[in-house]
Amino acid sequence: DDKLLSEPLSHPDFFNVKELFSLKDLFDARVHLGHKKGCRHRFMEPYIFGCRLDQDIIDLDQTMQHLQLALNFTAHIAYRKGIILFISRKRQFCHLIENTARECGEYAHTRYWQGGLLTNAHIQFGSGVRLPDLLIFLSSLNNVFEPHVAIRDAAKMNIPTVGVVDTNCNPCLITYPIPGNDDSPTAMELYCKLFKMAIIRAKDKRRQSEVFDELR
Amino acid sequence: TLRLIYTTTAVQRKNVGASGPEKYTEAFIKKQIEEFNLGKRHLANMMGEDPETFTQEDIDKAIAYLFPSGLFDKRARPMMKHPTEIFPEQRKIQWGEDGRPFHFLFYTGKQSYYSLMHETYEKLLNAQKYQDQVTAQDLPPQKEKKNLAGSRWLTKIELEEMLLEKLSDNDYLRFILLLQKLMTLPCGDIEEKYIQKFSKEVPAQLQKVVIEPLKYDERGVAFSTGEGTRKTARATAVVYDNGTGKVTVNGIDILHYFPVLQDREQLLFPFQFLDRIGKHDMVCTVSGGGRSAQAGAIRLASAKALKSFVTEKEVEFMRQAGLLTVDPRVKERKKPGQEGARRKFTWKKR
Question: Which of A7, A190, B12, B247 could be disulfide-bonded to B282 (CB atoms 3.0-4.6 Å)?
């Protein structure tokens, strides 16, 4: 049992998430496109490659590194049977994200966030609730272009976060930010596909390892 | 679970009220059902009946016999019912042994409402895709009949009962707007079945109105009777066909019985509404009430009698005009401390 849990931690890329995406895939899905220069957030400047005709372009090399780290982290969490919660407040992609979460076997929250969901969970849900072990933000702003309340709440409750940060977002409190576009449908479909594949791979590996252990 | 770092002694006291109403576990309900079945058999043996065929009505009678109570409220008396009727249907605990919730939208708070919205939105997308396919293939648009006034949407309370969850007014409104949008699209049969789950039939008022057939007297003339009341007046009217417009009340002609024009107008109003002023004869008997009340009573009676002579559409027109409804206004009683029903005594400052 201990070996099951400690074995993946010895490899840097146990689940081989690098092969799930390539630079060309990210470029074709228009992940590099940011918002205009006026919307730029100060803390996103290190992640921006440059500015063309007033529109920011995100550095895809850095995006690749961050994406690889984030997918690796989600795969480890899924391998250890953690609860993953997908969050986004974009109305266009709410249906897509809920479908992705359902197919993975994980959870989604793309609706209005009630204040005490994480911090007041024992009163809102019941006494033996288990809180999510990872929050994945597919768009880190809410409908009023402010940082989503869940980022702050997760930091309060010591829950790690993975988030796609666009050029107008604040990447501060997110543990594994992924600088990238969160407005194009192609980009969102790509992210959903990547997260789904990573989680399913990790769960399959876990099941295989358990079966091998039982056979011994 | 949370790790307690530091709190004051005030917080450590258990807040009994904040945990909400008592939640019943499945094991508890199962035990209650077993005890209920055992108790039913004991009761049957006590009453000398067969334990196998002991119905709920027999249980109620037996309990009323063994524990007579003079309490007025039926719900306060001793009762023995199946636990599913006593313990209200509640959400059982939503997560399994390892802590993972069952429903994928559990962390939103209102899982059944949001899953309903999700499904309805999916049906909407399917309908739009189907419409696109139909237009791409250049098929003629399907014309489907929609029942305009025969159905209504579920009320907020009914939806709450269906979902076992509290809804807010905004949520309910959003759901109804989504359903209406889905209905306006040229959707196929699949979506109609889904929509029918959330709509109810409204029986039209006409079905309650019973139209009696015409009766024929010795001369072969068609006639029909009607009864009417107004305040304390009771009237019966017999309307004959092929007449000249003669109206007799208690054996006296209306010109002599109702000298006031207003009362005669009230009598003739049903005939004027149906444009049959000179075509019918009427013989009425009336008792009780005053001048105006008797006129109103005869008007109702004659309108009811005319129902048999006239088509269903015109009966609906009469009902909407208010000719067939009984006027419920009666004299209001005088209250103590007041001079009349509403008039108070003169208020004197000193």
Answer: B247
Residue B230 shares a structural domain with residue B132: no
| Interface contact flag, A122 B105, Cβ < 8 Å | no
pLDDT at B63: 92
Q: Which pLDDT tens digit goes with each residue over A150-170?
A: 999 999 999 999 999 999 989
CATH code (residue A143): 3.40.50.10490
For B231-251, how does the pLDDT look when each residue is reduced to its tens digit (9 = 90+)? 999 999 998 888 888 889 999
Residues of chain B neighbouring A122 (CB-CB closer than 8 A): 2
Q: b/e for A3-42, b at 16 or more Cβ within 10 A?
A: eeeeebeeeeebbebeebbeeeebeebebbbbbeeeebbe
- Identify whether the C-beta of residue A93 lies closer than 8 Å to the C-beta of residue A185: yes
A120 near B CB under 8 A: no
B108 touches chain A (CB under 8 A): yes
Whether residues B175 and B254 fall in one domain: no
pLDDT at residue A59 above 90?
A: yes
Range among A186-190, B191-195, B287-291 rated most confident? A186-190
Measured in angstroms, the CA of B94 and the nearest CA of chain A are apart by 9
* Whether residue B117 is found in the same domain as residue B191: yes
Q: Which residues of A touch B2 (CB under 8 A)?
A: 122
Integer Cα distance of A96 and A103 in angstroms: 11
Asked if B295 and B259 sit in the same domain, the reply is yes
The pLDDT value recorded for residue A98 is 94
Q: Taking the model in full, what pTM does it have? A: 0.71
Q: What pLDDT, in 10s, does the model give residues B92-136? A: 678 877 888 999 999 998 999 999 999 999 999 999 998 888 888
Rounded Cα distance between A88 and A97, Å, is 8
Rounded CA gap, B40 and B54, in Å? 8
Domain hosting residue A172, numbered range: 60-113+130-215
- Residues in chain A with CB shorter than 8 Å from the CB of B105 are 98, 107-109
Considering only the beta carbons, identify the residue of A95, A117, A126 that sits closest to B107: A117
> Do A81 and A204 contact (CB within 8 A), yes or no?
no
DSSP string, B50-66: -STT--HHHHHHHHHHH
Q: Is B180 in the same domain as B243? A: no
- Which residues in chain A have Cβ-Cβ distances shorter than 8 Å to B106? 107, 125
Contacts of B118 in chain A (CB under 8 A): 95, 98
- Give contacts of A 27-46 with B, CB under 8 A: none
Confidence of residue A69 (pLDDT cuts 50, 70, 90): very high
A8 inside domain: no
CATH number of the CATH domain containing B251: 3.30.230.10
Report the residue of chain A nearest B99, measured CA to CA: A130
Query: For chain B, how many structural domains are there in total?
Result: 3
Tell me, yes or no, if B4 comes closer than 8 A to chain A by beta carbon.
no
Chain segment B144-177, per-residue pLDDT in tens: 666 666 778 899 999 998 888 889 999 999 999 9
Cβ proximity of B230 and B296 under 8 Å: yes
Among A77, A34, A64, A83, residue whose Cα is nearest residue A181: A34
Q: In this structure, is residue A40 part of a structural domain?
A: no
| Domain carrying residue B58 | 26-86
**Stretch B48-69: mean pLDDT:** 90
Q: Are B165 and B110 in contact (CB under 8 A)?
A: yes
Q: Can you tell me the ipTM of this complex?
A: 0.91
